[in-house]
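Re-run with default settings, no changes from the original entry. Doing this only to confirm the output is reproducible before filing.
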Amino acid sequence: MNTPRYEKKDLLSIPEGKTFDRKSASYDLNKLANILIAFANADGGTVALGIKDKKYEGVNLLSSQKKNDILQLGSQRVVPTLEIEKNVKHILNNQGLPDEVWLLTVKPTDNKLYMNKKDEVYLRIGDETHHTTFEERKNLEFDKGIRAFESQAIDEAILDDLDEETVDKYKEMYGFDGDNLWDLLFPKGLAKRIRDKNDQIYYRLTVAGVLLLSKYPTAFIPGARIRFIRYEGKEAKTGSDMNIVKQIRIEGPLDKMLQQSSDILESQLRTFSSLDTKSGKFVDVPEYPKGAWLEGIVNAVVHRGYNYTGDDIRVLMFDDRLEIHSPGSLPAVVTTENIRRTHYSRNPYIARALTDFGWVREFGEGVDRIYKDMNEFFLDNPIYEVDANSVNLVLKNNIIMRSFRKNDDLESKIGKDWQQLNFIEHTAIGLAYEHGSVRTRELYEGINGYSMSSARNALNHLTKMGIFERVASAPTSPNQYYKLIK
């Protein structure tokens, strides 16, 4: 089992949370079992036993019988039997005497749901051990089947398929300098140990291992990619009206995919100058806060249902919004109502690895950060559109950026003639761009202070220039309108 990364850290200063807790050596054993159950049903975790009031008390104050009871927690107080790894950190207790803190660690589970002897199911949410409701328990049981997918072995994948640069980075991350790579991958859930009928042991990469480390994950898991698509306008069109202006397919190990996605999106986003009322200086303001859109992409990679092999993650850019599409519905106990405060990893091994790679900066707090970053930029709250097969995150920009992006697109569309047009003509083109067409009265109402004849003259001039096409059933038709010529 995986040796806890907490073993070499200052256990008194680590914040308690999704995967770590501190307890006194004399803590109630039933409650201790419930914490370990909660960890196992979520992302795995470690209890540091022998710490009271953030001081080392050690475990030597316990009798031999009590110590043995602790070691039997997984078999005596958990159903089904839960494997608990015990590691020891040697310390000086608060009396100045040599002592031990026990690090009790459990792995995340896939196809099992653990409970105590009272048939109660617990789940770790933030730093709390949550007693699940009947409905939450049903959702957990359903999601375990999806979660099991990342732990499945892929027989066709071999070590030669791995991306050497990413593997070196992964080794360095964990300080691994051994010769047998399986010794690193197996404890991290990226490989499976298999015993054949002749009692011989061999290893196979898991889905998580392939996604994180393979050069070409899509060779084994179709759909394990990110697609970036930028559209002209506010909607996706097809056929002869197709309005895709850029499309990029991003593939490779997850760490590299995330970096490439970040670079691509950053290159496509606009900034504008805004007066900072506090400093009195003009500052560059991005179209969307990076923390929000990057968290959205990271969350999609971490929590998507990789068993949905016919679908991929899509980042769609429109004039007025970004959409991040993730295959698979919200995991287990997460709903659109509690998404800011409730976290459950559908792919805990991937989640842990990407946390250590540095993409998940504060484990389990990404969605709340999206809300906060959008609010700090005075943008609308993110919108989560959820159905049985997907989650769609929508981030809207503001009216200033929409205007900038629209004007950029129009200038590109019209060409050098754009600079020669007046305000009324710019407005007419903008209205036709926004709504598909423009009528004389609509333009008149949009140019407050100008006359109807000014609107009519502008539309006639744009038609003569070949920018507009006049559509009418008769020369004096009251229903005539103008539209942009492609």
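The two ends are 63 Å apart (CA to CA). The domain at 421-484 is CATH 1.10.10.10 (Arc Repressor Mutant, subunit A).
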